[in-house]
Amino acid sequence: MKTINFNKLGEELKVELTFIGLITASYEYTLWAADSNDKIMHESGNNQNSQDDIYKLPVPIAQNDNRIIQLRTEFVGLDPINSKQFKIKIAVYQGTHIVGECDEEGEVTGKMQGSLIYAKLKGE
Questions:
Q1: Quick one: pLDDT at residue 28?
Q2: b/e map of 98-110 (b: 16 or more CB within 10 Å)?
Q3: What is the distance of C-alpha 123 from the center of its chain?
C-alpha cells in the first residue's frame, strides 16, 4: 500500500480515477475511516459515460489523516490482439497539484480481469 502525504492545513483534497487502454471497466471506490472498518464514502461507477470519476474528500482536510483509499475494478479488454496494455490509476490532488498517485498496469487477456489498489493518506 502506497502512502500519499498531504498538508493538513492545505486546500481541499480530491481523488481522480483514470482507466487507460481499450477496456470496459466498472469500479467501487471506498474511503475507509482511519483505524476502523467504517466507510466514510462508497461510490461506484464505470468508464463508459461522460461523467468525471472524481471525488472530493471530506472537510476539514485534517480528518483524512490515516484514512485508506480503495479502488476495486472489474474490466475486460475490448481488443486484446491490437490493444494489449491497460492502466488503472488513482491520483490525489490537493487544490490543483497532484500530491500522490498509485496504479496498476498490465496486459489485457480478453476475459474478465480485476484490479485492487490501496493508498493510505498521511497528513503532515
A1: 98
A2: ebbebeeeeebee
A3: 18
- Whole-number Cα distances in Å, 62 to 4, 43, 82, 98: 14, 22, 46, 17
Look at residue 2 in the predicted model and tell me its pLDDT. 96
Residue-averaged pLDDT of the chain: 96
Instruction: Find out whether 73 and 27 touch, Cβ atoms under 8 Å.
Output: yes
* Dist. CA 56–CA 96, nearest whole Å: 12
Q: Kindly indicate whether the domain formed by 2-116 is annotated with CATH number 2.60.60.
A: yes
Per the CB < 8 A criterion, the answer to whether 69 and 102 are in contact is no
- What band does 106 get if pLDDT is binned at 50, 70 and 90? very high
**Spacing of C-alpha 39 from chain mean position:** 15
Cα dihedral 52, 40, 119, 111 sign: negative
Taking the C-alpha atoms of residue 110 and residue 82, their distance in angstroms, rounded to an integer, is 11
Q: What is the pLDDT of residues 75-84, one digit of tens each?
A: 999 999 899 9
| β-bridge partners, 51 | none
